[in-house]
Amino acid sequence: MTLAFAIRGDMGKGMALAYIVVQYIAAAAGSSLALYLFGEAGNLAATMPKEGLVFKSLIFEAVLTFAMVLLVLSMANGPKLNGPFVPIAVGGYIMAAGTMGGPFDGAAFNPARAFGPDFALGNFSGYWIYPVGSIVGAALAVLVARFLRGPAKASESQAAMGTPLDKSD
């Protein structure tokens, strides 16, 4: 989502980079703590494509990310989601996509989510699939959202940078 907001122009490059760095640090710290507490149980929920399905996993990650980003951008006023049922819709999508895609390739649809367990386990062999798939999916979703809704409003960009939206927007 951070990348999508940056591509769409809602968030400056510096702010987006800061968010991404913090997400990667948090993912590495969380997975390292899980490794310390529980060992390699469950492979720390690492995202790993099945043997021989690397290209299909890349496409699948792009599709999962595309749908999630398009869903959020369709319901967002900048980075702020509007409506009381939006968290249910987003959570429902994540649960459904994770349940469906988890057994196939881990269903990360977030490069930081894929990075954490790979960092803790020291195995980055299939990691590249997740950032590439996420970048492609997010960029396509931004293009489709722009086609459907037009460019982001100035107030949406201000909200992405920390200025609260006026209730009348």
From TrEMBL:
UniProt entry tagged with the keyword Transport: yes
TM annotation in the entry: 16-38, 53-73, 85-104, 124-148
Protein topology in the membrane: Multi-pass membrane protein
Gene Ontology CC terms, in alphabetical order: plasma membrane
Pfam family, one: MIP
GO terms of molecular function: water channel activity
Alphabetic keyword roster: Membrane, Transmembrane, Transmembrane helix, Transport
Localization in the cell: Membrane
Keyword match Transmembrane: yes
Stated family: Belongs to the MIP/aquaporin (TC 1.A.8) family.
Protein's name according to its UniProt entry: Aquaporin
